[in-house]
Amino acid sequence: SGPTGSRDEVFIEVDDNFKLKGMSKDKTILGSVYGELTGISKISQTAFAAMNDYARNSFIEIPGLDYEYALVGIRGQENIYVHKIDDYIWCEIDDEQHLARAEKMIYPKIMSGKE
Prior knowledge:
The chain is an alpha+beta fold and 115 residues long. Helix content is 33%, strand content 10%. It has a three-stranded antiparallel β-sheet with strand order 2-1-3. The chain is globular, with a radius of gyration of 16 Å.
């Protein structure tokens, strides 16, 4: 998505062909920020198999490995294209602060149909 200002963002970097280059919660380690991860991903069977192999080989060093790191880890093997919707209305809800933000800012936008 475009910028949300949620303070819990995962930033995405892409190359000139909109292929995944990197992801991080710390945007300063990326070359440039293209958008934010919504967590909605369409993954091919071959990419999924590559992610499983990557995870299997990485769990010793990174026991808490999550799928975002696996996606970045296989970017050299698989073409992972990023589709960005600038005015996508969304949020994640991990805690009460996120819930309050969703109720106050996101839900009214969804109900009004406006950004």
